[in-house]
Amino acid sequence: MPHINLLPWREQQRQASQQKFLTILGVIVAASLALMYGIGAFYDTLKQGQEIKNRYLSSEIKKLDKRIGEIQGLNQQKENLQRRIRLIEELQSNRNLGTQIIDEVTRVVPAGVYLTSLERQKNMIKVIGRSESNNRLSQMLRAVESSYLLRDPLLQGIVAGEREERLLSNFTMNFYVKTFAQMEKERAELAQTTEAEN
């Protein structure tokens, strides 16, 4: 029987299998590297796109911050102008305030009440005078309360006179001048009431 040596064939078969295995392994490694590179490139593209969006958003935010700063500056200018306008209106209304006070005091003082002293300390008016009766003083208090310019009347004291032939009573009264803001508020309330009635 002839002897057939199969060892070289097996050796060749093993080398071929090993070569095939190494080829497949190389293809798998190359495919894995290509896949990893592709995934990395994809995520890198996404990252770059997000960075572009972030830079755009940052630039827009800076523009908006600048506009907000400009708006705040305009609001500050507006508040300053409104404050100046209020001050000018208040100065304008106070320009003739002394005359208005005297005119209003003469309006609220009824017949039978005589003023001997009128003193102004800032917004407070101190009045010293004489009255024929307490009813006349009550009438004066009501007139001050309903005045457009005067407010908060306070009768400090009444002293009955003994020497005068008509028996006049001495009195001291304080009341206050309304501020420009209070008068404006009352005008607005009156306007609303008038509109509501119509």
From TrEMBL:
Which residue windows are transmembrane per the record?
21-43
Coiled-coil spans in chain: 64-94
What InterPro entries is this protein classified in?
A: Extracell_DNA_Util/SecSys_Comp (IPR052534), PilN (IPR007813)
The record ties this protein, via Pfam families, to: PilN
Q: Which UniProt keywords apply?
A: Coiled coil, Membrane, Transmembrane, Transmembrane helix
Q: Name one GO biological process term.
A: type IV pilus-dependent motility
UniProt keyword Lipid biosynthesis present: no
Does the UniProt entry include the keyword Transmembrane?
yes
| Superkingdom as given in the UniProt entry | Bacteria
The identity of this protein, by name, is: Pilus assembly protein PilN
